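Tutorial handout. Part one gives the primary structure; part two gives the three-dimensional structure as tokens.
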Amino acid sequence: MQKAIAIDFDGCLCTNEYPNIGKPILHIIDEAKKQQAKGAGLILWTCRQGKELEEAVAACERWGLHFDAVNENLPSWKEFFRNDTRKVGANEYWDDRAVIADQTCILRSDKCFKENQK
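Part two.
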């Protein structure tokens, strides 16, 4: 099955200047392109919608980044699972707001939240 990488826009692919388009974060964009060249499918995974989403997609295209899906599952995953869930499925989620939450951390969520805010 094709590797899927869901990538956030604001704060990950560009500096967070929402609702404007921030400056591109080139080392992340370059790594995304490398992963895609190796066969990974890229999903733009963002809360943007409407005109703001169109602007984000256009910015990515200007930066040479082309997505296989936008806020939805990869076509290859839909076919493999014979399903299209509301939650975007991926092997990796690249997000500036992500927290790796193992079971121990979840059980101590208040403490983990405070530690991750430092």
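Part three, for discussion. The chain is about 40% helix and 10% strand. The chain has one domain: 4-116.
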